[in-house]
Batch of 2 targets.
Target 1
Amino acid sequence: MTNLLIEWIIKTLVILFILVTAVAYLTFLERKVMSWIQLRIGPNRVGPWGLLQPLADGLKMVFKEDIVPTEANKLLYIAAPALSLIPALMTFIVIPYGSRVWGIELHVTRMDVGLLYIFALTSLGVYGIALAGWSSNNKYSLMGGLRSSAQMISYELAFGLSIVSVVLYSGSLDLVTIVEKQSGWVGHLGWNLFSLPMIPVFAVFVTAALAECNRTPFDLPEAESELVAGYHTEYSSMKFVMFQMAEYLNLITSTSITTTLFLGGWNGPFVGRYPLLGLFYFVGKVLFLILVAMWIRFTVPRFRYDQLMRFGWTVLLPVSIVNVVITATWVMFRN
Amino acid sequence: MSNYFPILLILVIAVGMAAVLLVLSRLAGRNRPTKEKLAPYECGVEPVGTARERQSVKFYLVAMAFLLFDIETVFLVPWAVVFPGLLNDPAMKQLFYVEMMLFIVVLFVGLVYVWRKGILDWNR
């Protein structure tokens, strides 16, 4: 029991350390990708190729003045960044990063309700944003918070129903089982994405996942060209950093879940013989999806929020209901 | 059950991390507040009115519909977990399939009703 406890603590700390570093470098990567797409050079002054930029940014943010506006609701204003960061940090313990390497399972824990756990936590993220918007007592922030709740009620149903389809197909809510079921011939033809009923589910899921992590074209809560900085207009110093961290952590979660559910998780060629390859496959797939998300961000214009709501309710929701029916029928007559 | 323990572990770590970050921003940053700095930000112009006024939330009814549909989605999850395990039992398989298809049809009719009533239309 103590061994298990120590194993859990070490794994959790290692994953958190990697995640925080990854978040720092994702901000850097995003700025670099943005500048390449816009034919600029991007940050290149701090360290070789600008690689130390995230550290400089972090240090700068720590020593910035922490402002709490006079008219803000103090308690909620301070709690809001924590409320969006905590659920974002908590999702990673159920994601399988690889199979067994040197006798160590590359996931912190496996639960029978893993997928529900992630679904519940990602839904909690909206509270931090809505509360931040309201408690700042700033009109831009309020609009950001309102839009965030509007956005949540438009895509959440499609998101949940896509998960139902995947669960139907895989027969489990446990992410490890879902990944193991996707190991097929040479380790990649078993991916859920490559089976007919899962293709529309994948499309709906990816759209909903983009909305889930407030990425363009669904970045309505911050919409920097209309709302200054949206829900975090009044935030400075580490509180601002916490919102940014939560946002990038949500991006990593969404892409990891997409990888796990549709792209076979750590499955790939030769993964049976060299299990360590699985870790690289997983990271590679996640990184690929993140780059796609960035590409989308710098290519697609933003939705208006009534458009988003109409899109969510009249396109995504009916399509995902039909997807559930199709998947159920497929599973019923598969054998 | 012990598989669920890491949730508690990471909750403690995450709360601790959030608390440290919040305290850090209080301690490390300089603190020289002025009246203007603490006023709501409105692009440099003097703030007009407050943000605590009443506002027409156009998606109020949609939010109500969302609650109903979300609960119905929750009903689908346990069925989705159990159904693939019943495939070897023809009678149960058909019962579960037909029952849930009826439920989904009701769900869909509900969506069509909401749609036709114009709840999803903003310019009503």
Note: Chain A is about 65% helix and 0% strand.
Target 2
Amino acid sequence: MNPSPSRPSAQRTKSTISIKRIMPYLLSLPALSICVGIIIPFFVAVWYSTLRYRMNLPAMWGFIWFDNYIQFLTDKAFWNTVWISLLYTVLTVGLELLLGLGIALLLRKRSTFNNAVSIVLLLPLMTAPALAALMWKLMTNPNFGILSYIVGLIGLTDFRWASDPKTALLTVVLVDIWVYTPFIMILLLAGLRSLPQQPFEAAALDGVPRSFVFFRITLPMLMPYIITASLFRLLDSIQQFDVVYAMTQGGPGDKLMVFQVQAYLEFFQYTNVGRSAALLMVLWLITNILSTIFIKNWLRLRERARGHA
Amino acid sequence: MDNVSPIEKVLKLAALTLILIFFMFPIFWILLMSFQTNETILRIPPSIVFEPTLSNYEALIRGKLVSTAGTLDIAFMSNLLNSVILSTSSVILALLFGVPAAYAFARYKFKLGEFIAFTLLSFRFAPPLLVLLPLSLIFQKIGLADTYIGLVWVYQLIALPLILWIVRGYFEDISPDIEHAYRIAGHGWRKTFLKVAVPLAGPGIAAAGLLAFIFCWNNFVFALILASADKQPVTVGALAFVTASGIQYGQIAAAIVLSATPTLVIALYAQRYLVEGLSLGAVKG
């Protein structure tokens, strides 16, 4: 910080300097305590993942190095979890990106109507995902659910949504889309509206075709926003728990055993602490790679937002 | 770009109508259900014409469910109270912890600061169960299991990164010259922080606080793992309620409406800041 132009006594300068030096540490001490509070259980989890640790069989407790991980290689349930999680993530983020981009483009022009639409579209995003799942559960109930009735009208009489192994994943994906599409929409809309106008004006003057404008101007300029929004969603989606758990608890069968649901059941139902921790470590590894990429992009976007301010 | 053909206008309007139906219909329909008795809910074909009743809300507020099988005591209102307690105290704690730290990170470059900021950020994106499951065992050992304090502590995982990064951005946007001038006038750093920096970043702090409140309120998994029935917020309570009440669909709908209303109202009120909050300060609305 700048030296003070007023001339205090030598002693006062000295004490201000030492306060100045420790002040940032003092201010961030409480936040640091939270940080430590997270890091300790994290390392405990790493430790658990190397143990044979079953709460119902305490006698079996033992350090087994990476056996939990090695067992995953030949474990069908593990590969099912990986496959379902990937499928869920790709489907949700892909569809949400397309839909969110479409809506953002429709609402691009600032007008009272467009702004009102973009505000009400936020409501699903602000609904707790667990509650959203319950809402859709009520709507897809086979006895009285309005959606069951509607698909019945178009001839799909025995359509059982989340309780049918064939349609369970699609139903949960639909709920995810309902909740999270507005997230992508709102970020891309903000991105679109912050783009410089000159390239578009120049293109309009030259009579450039609109598909060219979209693919060669809009999309490339919007790319940082698209990447940040998608990575954000990828990170959340691969860890999805609330929607899946509230809707089907991972069922029917193992059709919706995404990472965190599987780990939850492993811990509480089978009391297999070691295996549950190892499963979560695998997920952590995936999210850690993704979040490293994400944070890089996010920082760049943040710098840009600050620069424009 | 302005000379759009009428066909295009119609298509655009049609698309927007479909989008609005898809995103608004579930909220509308659950709201309708919450004012219906089981008889009108179970009608086929479903209809939006019915005689509205407040009996579902009444049953929830009185805590007694009346069904064909008899009456059942439910604690839904205490779930609602738990949500208020947990979310409010979590946000207050996160503001007390986060705002000074955000100020320090914005004004001074120091390694520990960057470490804290990025550790909290990266745990924002780590699987919550990874930390929660060991914590549930640790909490049992140190006596924090099933306490508000333990839960509020863990809720910092949601609230603190949000507040830290958004408020840091607001502090960075304020020129330090204003603070220097105030300091030169003979005021101490504490007064400078409280009387100059915090008020200038006020809107950002308020917005971050409201958003953190929404995210804490909407959280499900923390309390599912760390809280027993009498400490559970509405998100977990509503799920338990579905299992307990069985076929009282109108009451389930009313419980969902009561649980979701606070966040929706806050979201509408704070919508100007949502873009910035949702992107943790990376995109400005």
Note: Residues 75-308 of chain A form a domain with the MetI-like fold fold (CATH 1.10.3720.10).
